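Example record

The entry below shows one chain as it appears in the dataset: sequence first, then structure tokens.
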Amino acid sequence: MMNDWPLLVGLVVVVLTSIFWMRGREQRLSHQFQRQLKAERQSSNQSEQRLQAFLLALQASPNGLVILDSERRIEWCNQTAARLLGLDASRDIAQHIAHLVRTPQFLEYLSQEHFENELRFDNKALQLHPYGLGRALLLVRDVTDVERAEQMRRDFVANVSHEIRTPLTVLSGFIETLQTLELSTDEQKHYLQLMATQSQRLGALVADLLTLSKLDAQAKPLLERVDMQSLLLQCEREARALVVTLKREMTITFDVAPGADMLGSTSELQSAFSNLITNAVRYTPDGGTVHVQWRQDVLTVTDTGLGIASEHLPRLTERFYRVDKSRIRELGETAGTGLGLAIVKHVAQRHGAELEIESSIGVGSTFRLIFGK
């Protein structure tokens, strides 16, 4: 019996060793599992955070985004899409898009097989982009500004065509008259003078169009120190020459503070100031007055002209906008091109200035360019 003790002790040691080893292994496995579980939780949290960040980025998109499943049911949409399409971002989930956007053009578009072109209706542009297994992303854009810009472009082209066609028609008629009729020397001189006037009108129109084109194309004006006394002296010469051309009697005064120079583009400021001052002269009748003042970076042009009704003031700087066509007929060939105040507006914006207009019918108008406001 005593000889069995070493064997028994050995067995006990083996059993205990096995138990402790198994426990240690279980603990190691448990710790490993805990670490793996923690890592998976962290990975899941990170994925959720990335997903939420991605959805927030989509929410911030200026364009509408709608995710559709293979049956064209809404899985998700951002607030922009909800606003543009009249959807509820939470209530309309799982609803068929065709049941919510029932415009006939859209329903026809949705039934197509190919979506290379976008659909436009009600100042919205939509395009479907299929992906995955039948799923699709619907993009929605607000094109109100685009439509407005396109309409302005069409109006601009129509106005330019009209403004150019009129003098060209007159020139063509005069040329035909000179070619077909026997005219005296005085008659020929008269027709040639009228043709020269129409040519000048065309030249002025082209010059103003080129000026606007340059202003649109250039990012910033070339800043230089502008001698305001010299610039306004040139404007005064032009204004007095125009008075002679119009054959009117009026009082023109210029009040320019000495040494009141500023930084800017001499050519652009010359164009803007000249347009304001010559407009005042054109629309001031016989016996009226035009007063020009330059003080502390402010140009003020006041006239005792016909005045402008208040409803027209917000649109005066639109290209080719005319307050009253009868005024243009009265002025005849001395009328402006209809682009002068548009040029003034562009120059003001490029110099960080503001154009203020005050006017009363039968009293006159005041145009004020305020720099550094």
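Notes for this example: The chain has a mean pLDDT of 80. The chain has three domains: 59-142, 148-217, 220-373.
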